[in-house]
Structure formats: structure tokens, C-alpha cells
Fold these 2 entries.
Entry 1:
Amino acid sequence: MAEGERRRGGGRRPAAAAAQLVADLEPVVPDGFWAQDTAPVARALLSSAVVCFARTGFHATTTRDITAGVGLSPGALYVHFPSKEEVLFEIARTGHQRALEALQARADEGDARRLVRDLVAAHVTWHARHHTVARVCQYELAGLAPEHLDVVLDLRQRFAALMRSAVERGSREGVLDVPDVNHAVRAVLSLGVDLVRWYRLDGADTPEGLGDAYADLALRMLGARPDQP
Amino acid sequence: MAEGERRRGGGRRPAAAAAQLVADLEPVVPDGFWAQDTAPVARALLSSAVVCFARTGFHATTTRDITAGVGLSPGALYVHFPSKEEVLFEIARTGHQRALEALQARADEGDARRLVRDLVAAHVTWHARHHTVARVCQYELAGLAPEHLDVVLDLRQRFAALMRSAVERGSREGVLDVPDVNHAVRAVLSLGVDLVRWYRLDGADTPEGLGDAYADLALRMLGARPDQP
């Protein structure tokens, strides 16, 4: 994932191409992302692990890689986490929780068409804003222990259920036209998920701008004209 | 998005759930996928490496993992490939080439709306059919050496250019209504790419069935009614 760096350094490949493939891995974990009762050193370790897991994958990351990222000795990790897998779990759990919260914040809008639009925009904007954490949440779940995967899958189910319920309501109320809800919900969610592969905060779109654009595209997929009142 | 599988399986979190997250890794590399001048042992090593890279990532895979998959000693890899990175390159190069060929096979249709539909269907069907190879092609490119990444990025550019050119033509001819070609082409490609994360050949959709369904959704996104003549 060093291509962005490499190219910015003056290589011959154009910026957009590699950027698209290997989203930049700046540590975009904002203050307040991790649970409030997490010690500052533990938060720093989680943010370092996000970068490591996103760059080389969970299995290839050592505890030494994670601690080195914050200038600590390898043993320091075990003061805060029982294992590397627990670090991944804390990232995946918190990441999915925050994404769910972003959707829930929109979930009391009145009109079903507007609700679907807001949910898609929130979904896309969250994944763009937090693309490095989201990359770990999407691609590294196979590293979780079964009981931890259960917790994360439950959060994912609640997330998908929010979107599905809004689409079903819009369909029932006649403001959307959706021949197959399974395909439509999956496709809409893919718009947000896949951007973690290529999105960069210094690219052409702000998270909010991309959220707006993709929400319009999603409404079209769901059979609603975005320019209807 | 393992939700459907979990329910279908009836258990609390049967194998199917995790399997959907980490799409099935059956070696779905058909005979004839690799270059014809590749020796049979080298082909077997490539297919084994596809499974290893898809399961634990390029960086965490050892040459021993790859050779063990075909019952050979670790040194056997170097008879056929100079390095593990060259194995990844051969997979990525061939995978992108085959996907490009699948699109090119549709690229001489007459009507622009039909052409776009066929390209999306071919894109989605290819990624579903070859989801394990495609997973490596989408998620493991950061393991490539710069000169190899260049080759693969060129193939990706040609791939995206085919789709973009069809969308632009449809837009120019008035059969599509596309406010922003960049967003639209990215969104359409995401439908095919993201399915490598969750698709299983033994799931609800055949590769061709999913290709058809997503082609309809893509035409809606692009402002064409799929039921127009």
C-alpha cells in the first residue's frame, strides 16, 4: 500500500491509478473513536494496529510491528491486550459499532425515500471518512476467533437490517420500486464497502460529497428518481 | 454480510457464516486458466498460491504453504518461480488478463445500452465465477514489486476504459442519463468487485444469475430503464 507514497515522490505512474487500488493509510482514527474507558496507550496501540493490519494484513502483522508504531517495546502490547487477536476484535467491534451509530443517527427521518437516501449517504460518508479502519473491518474478519466473529456478525446484521427495513418500507409505501430486495440491499451496501479499497481523503471527493453522489445513484437503483420532490 | 447464510443454516453461527465473510476458498481455478505454456507443476503451484493468498494474505503466506498445498517440498517453488512475489504477479497478471478478455468478448455489440448491460453482466459473472482468484487480484496487489504493479495497473486501466467508453457512448447517444461519469463507472465496477468478499458458488445466485440482476441494477443507476426495448 506504499504506492501513494511512492508516486507522490515523483515516480512515473499517475497518482490516480495506484491511489485507486491501494487507498492511503494515513492514520485517520480521530480522537474519541475508541471507547472512552480505553487507556491512552491502549488507544495508541489500536490506532497503530489499524495501520499495520490495513497495510500488510492481520496474519502478517507482529505484535512488534504494532508496538513499534508507537515507540514501545513488544511486551507493552500485553499490558493492555491479551493477544493480537483481541486487538483485532477491539478494532472490528468498535468500527462496526461506530458505523452502526452513524446509520442510527439518521434512522428517525419521516419520509421513506428520504430515509433511504440519508442512510446510504451516512454509510458511504462513514466508510470514506474512516476508510483505513473500515478496510480492517471489511477484509480482516477471518482473523477473529469464532466467539468474537459472532459479536461482529451481530453488529453487521443490525446494520444491514436498518438498510433493508428502510428499503422495504419505501417499497411498501410505493416510493421505491425494488424487484429483489436481497440484490438491491447488497448492491447498495457494496457502494459503501468497496470504496475502502480505493478512497483517499485527498482525492477528488470529500466523504460527504461522495455520500451525496452515491445516495443519488442508490436511489436510482432502487427505482426512485432523485429529483422527485 | 453473512446474515442470510446464518439463517439458512439454522445454527447460531455455523460454518456457513464465516465462510461467507471469507468467501469459500475452494480452488476454483479451472483448467485452462493459466497460460498454456505454463508447466503442469507450475499451474498447480499457482492454484495453491491462490488459495493461500486468499485465505491468509500474501505477506503471511510462506513458500512452504504454497508447495505443501500440492504435496511438494518448499524448494520446489524455486524450480518454477524466482520468488513468492513472482507467483503473485503471475496470478494478478493472468487474473486481470482473463477478466479483460471476458469484457472484450462482449465489446462488439451494437446498441450502447445493450453493450453496457452485457459488460456489467460479464464483469459480475466473471468475478463471481472466479471469486477466489479475483479476491487475490483485488486485495493483494500491495505485495507486487513496482514494475509488476505497473503491468497490472495498465490492465486495470484498459478494463475500466472499456466500461467508461461504453457508458460515455450511451450517454452521448441519449440512451443513458449519467450526471457524473467518474462516479457512475466506479459505482458500477464496485458491484462486481465487492462480491468477491462474500460470493459463494453454492449460495443463492449462479454467477450468470447475479450478473443479470446486477446488470439491471446498473442500468437503473445509469438512467436507463431495463424494461425499455
Entry 2:
Amino acid sequence: MLIKKAKSYGFCFGVKRAVEIAEDSKNAVTLGPLIHNPLEIKRLAQNYNVNYVDSIDKIDDNIKRVIVRTHGIPKKELEKLKNKNIEIIDATCPFVKKPQEIVEEMSKAGYDIVIFGDINHPEIKGVMSYSVHERVFVVLDVKELKNIKLKEHIATVAQTTRKINDYLKITDYLIQNYKEVRVFNTICNATFENQDAVRELAKEADIMIIIGGKNSSNTKQLYNIASEYCESYLIENENEINPEWFKNKKLCGISAGASTPEWLVEKIISKIKEVTWN
Amino acid sequence: MLIKKAKSYGFCFGVKRAVEIAEDSKNAVTLGPLIHNPLEIKRLAQNYNVNYVDSIDKIDDNIKRVIVRTHGIPKKELEKLKNKNIEIIDATCPFVKKPQEIVEEMSKAGYDIVIFGDINHPEIKGVMSYSVHERVFVVLDVKELKNIKLKEHIATVAQTTRKINDYLKITDYLIQNYKEVRVFNTICNATFENQDAVRELAKEADIMIIIGGKNSSNTKQLYNIASEYCESYLIENENEINPEWFKNKKLCGISAGASTPEWLVEKIISKIKEVTWN
């Protein structure tokens, strides 16, 4: 049986980079889990002694290095870390760093700031903290925006994982109602690249195996797309594989959610090869 | 019979202002006709000796004052005027001056410039001339934009008379494809205010009289809107009025195209009153 991986799958650039940083930072702690995958968290703990703490207050004197994860953290928390006698390793995704810098610069230049995103998401908590003034507004839709009276000059950024069409609804409204709107497209295409790739592969495959957490929303999305085109299964580990699935199939496509490490993908491919041997 | 004028009609702010400037500038010439209305051009010539010339080269030594009309003129032509021994009276509409200033400032700051408008329109010829570099692109739709490879940072303005929804198609495309888009909404609502007002009035009127040139596109647009709601007539002068139109009508609504002077509106209202008397 032929096995083919999607052109793009699994970790995005920022997560790959953060995991490599963690592997290079033995005995560090991360502020919050580095990634939404318990197997990977366990691997980093066992092989590199990189564990995680829930908050800065839980960093005791025995800990000498702390890793800031891809989402970034609020500016004040970074300052709090700097006041500790500790090495700070910044794994903030460069695509998240960008809106942080934009918000800082634009707020200094006197612009009202509109952030399209979820105010409860760590990334957004970090990004908004970089405004030097209080006129920073986080919205999820135009309805929320209508309740806010902004000044004539506005700068806007988006949470990296949002959909561009939803952001355009926000920018259209702003352009219609204000004199100058400085739009920074800070959306990262990684999520959508995985989706496009799974669609492309599912069209030619006879069966698709999607690897990732059963309650991971981006993994479920990949599974839903694949299901439109062929028989598809969402699995978390190799033990779930049923040899029956592959009977009379020629091409098996593989994709994985954004939190699925490469080693897990390889393990599952080996298992598929094993069960379909002969 | 009751006669009611639309809440907004006729000259926009910029044209009103330009006509007042012309009335205050006896013996001047305008560069191109001040307004698309031959009756008004004639009145300014007869009462104020304000005539027009087609080009700067036709300004001879006998002429001591020149009026720049609402559309503005290219920067180089303004410089050419400054080199003549002549008083320059600038009647450029402030809403046109704004995009000129923005294009100058943004090009100096290194932005690529995208102008949404008609490259053959005098307003756009003026606006684009204010760029200090050559990377200024005038487009009418997204198709044209797709043929241009822009730099990552773009500033954009629109011709003042364009529709906002068409401009949003341009800005949506730019936002999707480039890192920073600095959108200046330079569209003037005057045209649309006249349209909204004619619609509102036509709903309650029994008959609508629209005053303006029969080949003026904005006047025809007003007539089309009025016709949707009640019996409507487009006239250029008071001689076209037919008393029969007003039989059994209670409320007559009045609107006028953007180049129709107020004195003509008043003349026509007097005539309607005259023919409907008793």
C-alpha cells in the first residue's frame, strides 16, 4: 500500500521552533504548556527535564531558566520575569511578536487600536498589553465594534489564527466609518495551509488517517475536510489503527493537527506499514 | 399646491465654495469650466467677467488672476502658474486637497500608492501628481490591481465621487495580499446625500421635478430614483414645465443635479407656483 503525507501538516513554523528551543533549554520551565499535546509535553519532561508552571508565582528559586511559549505573554509579566534572577528564553512566535510590535508603535503614534480576536486568548492578552495607552479595543465582530466610538485614525491587527474573511468584515466597517485605517494583516496562513493540503490529498487518496487530539478543533477540521472526499479516520495514537480499514485500498493519505509532533506521525506510518504488509 | 425641496440637492459644498470664490474674483479666468452647467458659466461671465481658458498656455499677459477649479490641477501645472506674473486663486475642493496631501506625505514616507479612480479624470491627474516617486498606481477595479506587483507597505486613497462598496473591493484585495495597507477613505458623501434625500422625498410626494442637464449622469440618477416612487420629470429650465403634470397633485418634490445653481431652482419653483395658482 502506498502512503503519502499531505504537503503541509502538523506543527506550524512557530511551534516547531518553540519545541527546538525547549530541547535546547534543558532544566527550564515553560509558562503554561508549550503545546496542546500531552505526549509531547511528557517527552520534553522526560528527555529534557523541561516542565511547565501555571504562573510566574510558581517559579521558585530552584528554577534558573524560563521559556516564554509561542503565544507570548503580557508585557507586565515579562517585566516581572526580568525582575527575577532567571534566564528568560523567548519562544514567542515571530508572527505573534509582529502584532505586539505594531500595537506598541501605533499606540505610541497616537492611533486607536482595534484588535480582531478573542480577549481571553493568551496571544491577545499579550498583544494588547503592548499598547502604551488605554484606547485598545478587542472585538470578535462588527456588532461589538458598533458599540465603540473610535477616534478618526485607527490601526488594526488580527489574532494570527483568525480567518481573513472575518477580518475583512471588521476592516470594511472601519474604512466606511473612519478617516484613516491602518490595516496590518497579521493572520498566519499555517492553519489554512494544512487545510488546503488535506483537501488536495483526500481527493486522490482512498483512505485518510488524521492524527491529533479528538477534541482539538483544528484536527477535527482536517478530519471533516478529508471526510468530504474519502473514508477518513481521526486517531490519537497507533493503537487505534484497525487493519480492516485498509482492505482494498491503494493510497493512504496522512495528515496531522497543529499540535501533533512529527515522531508520532512517523510511529503511526510505521504501524500502518506493519498491518498492511502482504 | 405644496412644494418641498429635498433635504440635500444641487451644488455640493466644494462647488458652492468655488462659485462664491469666482464671484469674489472679478476679471479672473478659470482653468477649464468651473462647473458643468452652461447657464452658470454664462452668468459668471456676464456678471463677474469670469471666463475660462482651456490650458495654461492660453493665459496671456492681459489676465491677472486665475482660478484653480474644484478638481485641482497637477503639481507641475501649479508650478507653471506660479512662474507667471499672475494671482492664483485656489478653489480646489478641500475634499480633493486631502488626497493630494495624503499622496504627497505617504509617498515621502516610502509607501507604494494605490489610487482608486479614473486616470483620465482631472481630479485624479492632480492627486497622482503629488507623489514624490513613480510607484503610484491608478486602478478602477481589482482586475487591474492583480497585474501590479506592489511592495509590502501600501497607502491608498479614492476619487471623491466613487462608491464606497467599490473601494472596499480594492482595499479587501490589498489587505489579503500585502502586509500593511493604510486606507484613507477620501470618498465624499455629497452625491449620495442628494440621492438619499431624493428617495426620502419621492416616497411622500405625488410628483417630483428634477432639475439638471439631460445628459448629466448624476441628474439622471436622481430622476431614476424618483421615478421608482412617483411620477417624475427631468427638466433643464422653466420653459419645459407643463401645467397638466400638476393636476390632482398635492405635494410636488424638488431636487437638482450637482451642477444646478440655486437661482435656477428658485426660478423653476416660481414658475411651478405660477402655473398651479388656482
